[in-house]
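Protocol step 4 of 6: structure prediction from sequence.
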Amino acid sequence: MRTEEVIIYYNEPDEKVYIKVRPGIETYYQLQNLSGKVLQEAHHILPLHDFDLTGFPEGNYFVLVTQGEKLYSKKIRKEDH
């Protein structure tokens, strides 16, 4: 993992968004819908975090990760099967 890298991915089988960041740095996590409403959020220094999308409707979501002065974001598409 490069020093600046943040990995964000959606695992469809367990309906979770996983986020991996550099350890030991205070990090703020947000899950938002398309209109910008914060659906879930967390704040800690652990290198791993996940958002559980179980029960959320099909659609697009944004994951925002703030670490120091850097902001990372990724659009996630949840589809019902």
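Step 5 (inspection) to follow. The chain has a mean pLDDT of 93.
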